[in-house]
Amino acid sequence: MKVAVVMGGAGPERDVSLASGKGILKAVELLGHMAIPLVIDAEGNWLDGQHEAIELLQACDVTIPALHGEGGRLQGFLEQLHIPYVGSGIAAGAVGLDKHLTKAILKAHGIPVTPGVTLRGTELTDTEATLQKLKAAGLDFPLFVKPAVGGSSSGVTRATNLPTLLAAIAEATAFGPRVLVEREMDGREIDLAVLEFPDGRVETAPALEIHADPEFFNATAKYDSSGTRFVVPARIDPELAVRLQRTAIDVFEALGCAGLARVDFFIPRDGEPVINEINAFPGFTPASRFPRMWAAAGMSYAEVVDTLIRTAMGRTA
To answer: Is this structure's pTM higher than 0.90?
Structure first.
């Protein structure tokens, strides 16, 4: 088959997307397909030109949209052109990137999420209104402040007092008009990789635990810190492992995901597991967490890519 791999983009996760795309291109070629790379530059323009890119996409059997943090926009473009693609559709891509909407939907399905509130409008600049909202929600320091829409931990800050809270809100508003303030969860960070198979099965790989060197797993820890360790399989008891697997699949289905997703949990020292976030197209470099988890299940990087392609083609058929 001819397989287009779209990578790059204008967002903060551009470099990770380029690395994911390069890994996927190699896997596609290993599988015996013709790989067609298509790059979107840092200004959001197709390097080959939009008309040329459309012609290349329409000439391919399937597209792998290896963009991170773009919220379903590329999927909408592909659907307009009637081009088959790997992964979730427009709605799941958009909702998965919007942490406020994700939490609202999961709470409506009875799935526990990290406690927090969303600030908007005058709440972003009115200190008294902000403090009242936090108090009403039972939130106290330390807190985590993050843009309501976005990925890769961009704009995420830990606040330990009022001055750092106000500075964190100001930083997060640079990414958008809504800001999420969440309770710090003292415990373990566990990830689950969810994969849809061509026969319709949805399964999870062994869980992964993050051991981050800095005070929290920020963008530097994700991509630049030699002190960050990923332990897979995570050392958790079998009962908890099954519970997390079931919850991850429930999240995948509640948000209408397809193909793949990574579901991130907090396991508090003194409470029940909660969802931190979901990534509808997680980092996909050979060293990324998603392929690491499937490697622990016995699937090579190329086998995971093959599964994604066959699942997308089966859905199209």
So the answer is: yes
